[in-house]
Design a protein that fits this description.
binds fructose -6-phosphate; globular; 10 strands; 8 helices; Rossmann fold; single chain
Length: 244
């Protein structure tokens, strides 16, 4: 893993955006793996600014999002489809038909999971996967205990994850209990991974990622076995962790 240490969230977001926009300019038909949540908001904002200033084109870019809540319609402001359109896709020249997010609002979500995995494979796989990390080590919505061999699947969300995400909803009860997510094996197949870690609440996760054992109880630990992972981490996440 290559670790890039930055001062704060702003710098992390800017560096991540430079990394991605440079790659898109080099390979305009890049396939990007995208994530949601709080961490990549600044990255998307910087990418939009770059698009406006430097006209980086996303016309040929294809995207696959990591995950989606089960049971939320695409028009629900808390669905990840809504988030992606609102926060990023609506502001750049991407062809929406090339943007893929698992559907959490279909009758047969198990089927949707199988189809999504195949779609990624048939399209040639993800070139760069952007990841955040949960404080319990989850990546995508793969909670502790998920098999390292898992492909896209349906998961029960951990209480800690629902509590962490309740800030986006009116109350905890509204947070869905299930999600559809790329599996650990799906994520590990991407050619390159860019992991963003910011803030004090991720201190322990960072320390576990760097120094803990590689085991299914801490899903992100598997990333140490991936040949091309870059981690951009800010000072708040490093402070007092055992990184130094
Ligand atoms: C989001 C995702 C999750 C988040 C993680 C961190 O698509 O898959 O793994 O990256 O829960 O969330 P934030 O960034 O809100 O701390």
């Amino acid at each position: 893993m290559k670790i890039i240490e930055v001062n704060d969230y702003q710098e992390m977001s800017k560096q991540a955006a430079d990394y991605i926009s440079n790659r898109v300019r080099k390979l305009p038909s890049l396939t990007l793996g995208l994530s949601t949540g709080g961490t990549p908001l600044g990255l998307y904002k910087n990418l939009i600014e770059d698009y406006k200033e430097n006209h980086t084109s996303y016309q040929k870019v294809k995207t696959f999002n990591l995950d989606e809540y089960v049971g939320l319609a695409q028009t629900n402001p808390n669905s990840y489809r809504y988030y992606m359109n609102d926060i990023f896709f609506n502001h750049i020249n991407i062809d929406k038909s090339k943007t893929n997010i698992p559907r959490g609002d279909v009758d047969d979500v198990e089927r949707e999971a199988l189809d999504y995995e195949q779609l990624i494979e048939r399209s040639g796989g993800v070139d760069i996967q952007i990841l955040g990390i949960g404080s319990n080590g989850h990546i995508g919505f793969n909670e502790p205990g998920t098999s390292f061999d898992s492909k896209t699947h349906i998961v029960e969300l951990a209480t800690s994850t629902r509590e962490a995400n309740a800030r986006f909803f009116n109350n905890l009860e509204e947070v869905p209990t299930r999600a559809i997510t790329m599996g650990i094996a799906t994520i590990m197949k991407s050619k390159e991974i860019l992991l963003l870690i910011s803030g004090e609440s991720k201190k322990e996760a960072l320390a576990n990622l760097m120094f803990g054992e590689i085991h299914e109880g801490f899903p992100a630990s598997i990333l140490r076995n991936h040949p091309a992972v870059t981690v951009i981490v800010d000072k708040a996440a490093i402070a007092e962790s055992k990184v130094h």
